[in-house]
């Protein structure tokens, strides 16, 4: 396993007017890793995701992916570079089927463009069929292929979560950012999700995960980064973070 970081944040600061949302945040996601990003509510975790994916622009500092800066890129450019994400609140296209939801993500990799779609050329039809096949494989990967033709809003909650991950994976990322993937899940669903996240890592996709379920975080993460009030207060193995007095204080108080 290489020790080079696929995704690296260096001294990232984010200011909203006079409010400092992030201050000098620095960490990386190495190849073959699952990294947990934890902290109390309002600590800055989702802000970090938004900076990485181009939703917010860092006030200072850098974000690099695969050795190249992605600071200032628009979200679709970050996705095309190989960084995909899910959201804390499920953002499926509720009137589309599960398969159609995943096919949407694959269109960032298409070549024929709008004219091919309008003219319905032979090559465009072939590409569309390939997209359909790849989308179905993504559903299979996350164990929701039986819902391929079901309207996404009709899926059970835990399966909607897995569908959203399937959609992100269909864009063929090298790093996936999971924002509270176990939120709202029961213990059995969370255990299943852990197996799928390990499968994603073993499939060659690096994972950066925000999660409040400590059983999930401690059970699958190779390394954990802890933030509080926009500042990194700890980084290390699950065992190290569990024992860190700064982490205990952030969650439980003095």
In terms of topology, how is this protein built?
Elements: E1 5-16, E2 19-30, E3 34-38, H1 45-52, E4 60-65, E5 68-69, H2 75-81, E6 83-85, H3 98-106, H4 113-119, H5 122-141, H6 157-170, E7 175-179, H7 187-202, E8 206-210, H8 214-220, E9 223-228, E10 231-236, H9 238-243, H10 245-252
Parallel strand pairs: 3-8, 3-9, 6-7, 7-8
Antiparallel strand pairs: 1-2, 1-4, 4-5, 9-10
Helix pairs in contact: 3-5, 3-6, 5-6
Structure explained in plain terms:
By secondary structure, this protein is α/β, with parallel strands linked by helices. The chain has 2 domains: 1-82 and 173-254, P-loop containing nucleotide triphosphate hydrolases (Rossmann fold); 93-171, no CATH class. Helix content is 40%, strand content 24%. The protein has 10 helices and 10 strands. It has helices at residues 45-52, 75-81, 98-106, 113-119, 122-141, 157-170, 187-202, 214-220, 238-243, 245-252; strands at 5-16, 19-30, 34-38, 60-65, 68-69, 83-85, 175-179, 206-210, 223-228, 231-236. Strands 6-7-8-3-9-10 form a 6-stranded mixed β-sheet, with helices on both faces. Strand 1 (5-16) and strand 2 form a beta hairpin. Helix 3 packs parallel to helix 6 (157-170) and helix 5 crosses helix 6. It is globular and about 60 Å long. The protein starts with a strand and ends with a helix. The mean pLDDT is 90. Keywords: ATP-binding, Nucleotide-binding, Transport. It comes from Desulfovibrio ferrophilus. One of its GO terms (molecular function) is L-valine transmembrane transporter activity.
């Amino acid at each position: 396993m290489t020790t080079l970081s696929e995704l690296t944040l260096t001294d990232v600061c984010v200011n909203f007017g006079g409010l400092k949302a992030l201050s000098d945040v620095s960490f990386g996601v190495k190849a073959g890793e699952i990294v947990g990003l934890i902290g109390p509510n309002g600590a800055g975790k989702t802000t970090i995701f938004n900076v990485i994916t181009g939703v917010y622009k860092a006030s200072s500092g850098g974000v690099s992916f695969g050795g190249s800066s992605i600071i200032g890129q628009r979200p679709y450019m970050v996705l095309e570079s190989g960084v995909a994400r899910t959201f804390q609140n499920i953002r499926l296209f509720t009137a589309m089927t599960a398969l159609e939801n995943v096919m949407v993500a694959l269109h960032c990799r298409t070549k024929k463009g709008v004219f091919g779609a309008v003219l319905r050329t032979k090559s465009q039809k072939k590409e569309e069929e390939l997209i359909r096949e790849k989308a179905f494989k993504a559903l299979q990967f996350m164990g929701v292929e039986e819902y391929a033709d079901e309207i996404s809003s009709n899926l059970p909650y835990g399966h909607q979560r897995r569908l959203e991950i399937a959609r992100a994976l269909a864009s063929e990322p090298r790093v996936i950012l999971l924002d509270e993937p176990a939120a709202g899940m029961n213990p059995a669903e969370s255990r299943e999700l852990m197996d799928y996240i390990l499968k994603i890592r073993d499939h060659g996709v690096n994972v950066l995960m925000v999660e409040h379920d400590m059983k999930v975080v401690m059970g699958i993460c190779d390394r954990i980064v802890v933030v509080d009030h926009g500042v990194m207060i700890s980084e290390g193995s699950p065992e190290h973070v569990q024992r860190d007095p700064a982490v205990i204080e952030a969650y439980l108080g003095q």
